[in-house]
């Protein structure tokens, strides 16, 4: 019972963290008006959070090797709640962005440390349902975030978006008294310089995707510096040995493409729905699609075994294929795009549950940092999906964009052929 309570709290924070990633998308225009700034400046409310969540996924996973998981999670929750409350009272642009980045510092722990806890700390009997519920929380959060933010903005102003997230405070005392102590590995020096290089890589990558593509030059430069760094220091932030595991690299690449599809789906369908429905109606459609996908992940998770995991993975790809195919031949009929939305969320949930299970089967050592790299690639994939299709939708019509997504699904199918579910390397 105790483990189930812990699992419920951890998955609830995953839900809040994912919701928070989408929470301020609808608020950019009112924020820009209230603070008398441009839309590009207000986009830092999203960009700042994304940067900290992306880099933080690695940092928390690395720290989990030498610090109790309970301490890390409570620290993350306190930071998340504190700056959610402070952000509510702020009216200065830079302090508000700082509050959003601090929210990201806390929120970065939610997915990575929950995966670590489920795979490495909690009762193994909860593993299948735990991994399934991670997918449920992520699918539901991506649909519930825009809906709730739209409702809140229609009732009150955008400051309430900060305060709403402070509801995570209820999980602090529960986890303090219930979260178990776990064995930690020998303490090693933390690679702060490598973390700084990685932060700059992610910062310039996201700036290239969202502001000006010329930032990719700085991203490439610091990527080379970072690669040289992890090859020369004794205790790098990311141990290069994990990349010798070719199956882990393949699973991570497949997950990267999956989150690339998620980012592209949310952007494209939001773009399409904006011409047919009002923001509340669009949010309800996303929420219903995400809810159906979430329940699909639970059903799949209960029935998934080591033997049938690839079968479910292929089923997820087939659902993606059907959803994109009907959109390619669609003549702007709203109900068809709604069906595409439902198919995409179901497919995302099924494929993610399968990949999370494949990851657990493969990881024998360096679990924590491997999970960190896995989640880092997921966040980057989603950011690239949103940024790339925000440009493609201007150049091509919607049908062509769905052809690109269909090609990505076919690529995922070919890449998964050589994954062995029975053993690792």
From TrEMBL:
Span of the signal peptide: none
Ranges that cross the membrane: 37-60, 72-95, 129-152, 158-178, 212-230, 251-274, 280-300, 312-329, 335-359, 371-389, 395-415
PROSITE patterns reported for this sequence: MFS
Domain Major facilitator superfamily (MFS) profile, residue spans: 5-425
UniProt membrane topology term: Multi-pass membrane protein
Biological source species: Paenibacillus peoriae
Stored InterPro entries: MFS (IPR011701), MFS_dom (IPR020846), MFS_trans_sf (IPR036259)
Name assigned to this protein: DHA2 family metal-tetracycline-proton antiporter-like MFS transporter
Predominant place of localization: membrane
Localization: Cell membrane
